[in-house]
Design goal:
By secondary structure, this protein is of the alpha+beta class. 34% of the residues lie in helices and 35% in strands. Residues 139-395 form the Olfactomedin-like domain.
Length: 397
């Protein structure tokens, strides 16, 4: 009887236990299913985040590529505009020549037209000279008569380089640009700091966004003007204090051959005189003769160009002083540098009566010679030495 009662009690107990166990198994399976779904969702979210990052990176790369191509298009646009303007100028010259030769072959009536044309051309040339005299301060009336002495300030750096003061600023800072390809300027507080033996520790380093080519750079009014490395004829205007590029231009006709045969790394030599910024270069069309171009340093626009009679063969450097180009020649093996070709853009100097001017007390070559109109001195770089030449001047004839 007792056993029977126990059976009746155990049956519902076991039934309830088995039912609870079944429910627990179902809950565990449900939780396992939910966990798997959450893991799947997390993986999908991670993949979504990674895809978004990839898309953002691709968009950045695409934006950089578009900006780079837009910058290239702007350069091409400026180059095409410059070439078109140059072509228009040449067409105008050719048209005048055609009119002239046509008048020569005509009858007596045409001869009168030819005479009128000559008068018109003479009138236009006179007007052009008046404009040039207004543009270039005609009161600049001195010319180089001799190179009095030299001072070797220091010997530092490579064989090729450039050093200078800013003639357009009221400070005594010295700038050193070492090498024919580089992108670091060394700025010194004054010439005494520069002359100290361990000069690099006291120099302010200015890194350019693009390297320079050659040694024909110049600093003027707080800006560095230089030929950009790797470009044919791009001139960069760089703000030294703010450390950014403020403007650039393409110099028509330049960059195809060296400006000077003995300084082949310099395709464009920039210069400063009393009138501002100039560019000195050579062109194949002129037979290797040197071409000088007046540049507005504010707008970076070409103001006028002159084809000179000075040849780049055996030339090592040149500089501008008071509207006049002075070309320095040497021997390929090195020797005494000499000025034996002079070109005045206003024809105020009788270049045929100027004697050959020799650089004193030094055998060697120069990679750079720049005129400082403020101090009336030449800052030169010769075989790794930084040199100052004092000048003797006289009134133009």
């Amino acid at each position: 009887m007792v056993v029977l009662q126990l059976r009746f009690l155990l049956v519902p107990f076991l039934t309830s236990v088995m039912g609870a166990a079944q429910y627990m198994m179902q809950d565990a399976a449900l939780m396992n299913y939910i966990d798997r779904r959450f893991l799947s969702l997390e993986k999908r979210l991670e993949k979504c985040n990674q895809d978004i990052l990839d898309y953002v990176e691709e968009f950045r790369d695409f934006s950089k590529m578009v900006l780079s191509r837009l910058a290239g298009l702007n350069n091409y646009k400026a180059e095409v505009k410059s070439e078109v303007e140059n072509l228009l100028t040449r067409i105008e010259r050719a048209q005048r020549d055609i009119d002239y030769f046509g008048s020569v072959t005509d009858s007596n009536t045409c001869i009168e037209v030819h005479e009128d044309l000559v008068k018109q051309q003479l009138f236009e040339e006179a007007e052009e000279k008046k404009k040039l005299k207004l543009m270039l301060n005609a009161s600049c009336d001195h010319m180089l008569a001799g190179i009095k002495s030299l001072k070797i300030v220091k010997k530092t750096g490579d064989k090729h380089g450039c050093w200078m003061k800013d003639p357009g600023k009221k400070h005594t800072k010295i700038y050193l640009l070492n090498g024919s390809v580089n992108n670091v300027i060394l700025e010194f507080a004054n010439i005494m700091t520069f002359m100290e033996s361990n000069h690099t520790l006291k120099a302010r380093r200015v890194t350019l966004p693009f390297a320079w080519e050659g040694t024909g750079h110049i600093i003027y009014q707080g800006f560095l003007f230089y030929h950009r490395y790797g470009s044919l004829n791009e001139i960069i205007k760089f703000n030294i204090q703010k450390r950014n590029i403020t403007d650039q231009m393409l110099l028509p006709g330049a960059g195809r051959i060296p400006a000077y045969q003995l300084s082949p790394s310099t395709k464009i030599d920039l210069a400063i005189d009393e009138q501002g910024l100039w560019a000195i270069h050579a062109e194949p069309e002129t037979g290797g003769n040197i071409v000088i171009t007046k540049i507005n340093h504010i707008t970076m626009a070409v103001e006028h160009t002159w084809d000179t009679s000075c040849n780049s063969k055996d030339a090592e450097a040149a500089f501008m002083a008071c509207n006049t180009l002075y070309v320095v020649y040497n021997f390929p093996s090195g020797g005494t540098s000499r000025i034996q070709c002079v070109y005045d853009v206003l024809d105020a100097v009788n270049t045929y009566e100027i004697p050959v001017l020799h650089f004193p007390k030094r055998q060697g070559s120069h990679s750079t010679i720049h005129y400082n109109p403020k101090e009336k001195q030449l800052f030169a770089w010769g075989d790794g030495s930084q040199i100052i030449y004092k000048l003797h001047t006289k009134q133009k004839v």
